[in-house]
Amino acid sequence: MWVFIDSKKISIMVKHTIIIGDSNDMKEIKSEKIHFVITSPPYWNLKKYGAKGIGQNEAYSKYLADIKNVLLEVKRVLAPGRFAVINVGTAVSNEGMKPINGDIVKMMSDLGFNFKKEIIWMKPKGTQGLWQRGTTKFLKREPFPGYFNLNIMHEYVLVFQNDGEWEIPHEKKFQLTEEFIKEVAWSVWPMRVSRLKGHPAPFPIELPERLIKLYTVENETVLDPFAGIGTTMKAAKNLGRDSIIYEINSEYLEAIKSTVDWDEKSKEYEIKIRETTK
Q: Is the pLDDT of residue 242 over 70?
């Protein structure tokens, strides 16, 4: 876009874009223009996110198919050799555990991604304030062998690399500190849950901040196709990266703006609301 300063025509690039719409079609983004993807798909049949979206009252096979439709677009928009990180929890049903982390790995491998790392996000004990229902039953009503149940206090952080080559910059200004490397160079990351309000399942800002530092440099573009309340955008903004986020439920728009300290007057910010979501 163009603005005029002292009668001079100057280009001002939009740096942060909120798109209210379904990320299974990211038509607003040209192919291979994204430098990094970090996202957390909705839980399967566990949380109520809003009137729209995936994971609510649907079969597990349909849930996976809906996620794959979004990942097909991730594949299209992500630049060659660049990284995508997917945070998923454990899927539990009356029929037993669902291997959602394994299903995501297979899905991404089928799309041509290389599975590079698995990090465990470990939450503090008692994160939800109460024991999970099945564990309480084991404790109080059925404290016998064979009835064992447990409280789930971890999630998976799955790291994938797109096919192709990324010429990694080696300039001194991009070098990571020894302190930071010592903090992240372990397969288990103990982190609290998010302190941000306004969404049933936001991840902590430390998660995207660490990953954005590990896989991008300043002024590159970060994408989150399941934005929630905009935690990824906030992290990207804090670190001097550009960002594009998608959120299908328009009721989260004000929460996103609050999270990222949205500047209505700045030309670096824009909101796109698709007609079908108004």
A: yes
